[in-house]
Amino acid sequence: MRVLGVDPGLTRCGVGVVEGTPGRQLRMLGVGVVRTPVDAEVPLRLLAVEEGLERWLDEHRPELVAIERVFAQHNVSTVMGTAQASAVAMLCASRRGIPVALHTPSEVKAAVTGSGRADKAQVTTMVTRLLRLAEPPKPADAADALALAICHIWRGSANDRIAAALARTAAPRGKEYRP
Fold this sequence. Notes:
CATH architecture: 2-Layer Sandwich
Strand order of the largest sheet: 3-2-1-4-5
Radius of gyration: 18 Å
Number of strands: 5
Shape: globular
CATH topology: Nucleotidyltransferase, domain 5
């Protein structure tokens, strides 16, 4: 499975592509950040995020896009920018028919480090080890995007299999037995 992880942000939107399956060695195919000028108006910044994500989708052709679920923060303007960038990522994927999965920061931390309370340094260290990288990905937004992709490969695919099994058991099977 090839997953594009997106750590949404209006100034820096982290992106990372990971390929692999649960229980096998993961492979990083690309990592980076889509940047927008802080002095530009929001619509132009969102357009820049969209253009950057479209380039990543064109180049890497992921099977799924994993995006960090926006959570409440005290700084409303930060939440708004993150939510807007997240919506752009969902739109880009959906326009192409690529499934989207949302993961909370604590889900990602737990999947990658074993603790939902891990700090950014711990996440970056584990991403570096899991992907056998020569050096840690920088900035932290890029490492977080890779962590999102890893999280989905490990957790999301298991959740998808469970959902498929539940759907099969709920589906009618031929004629019902009536005594």
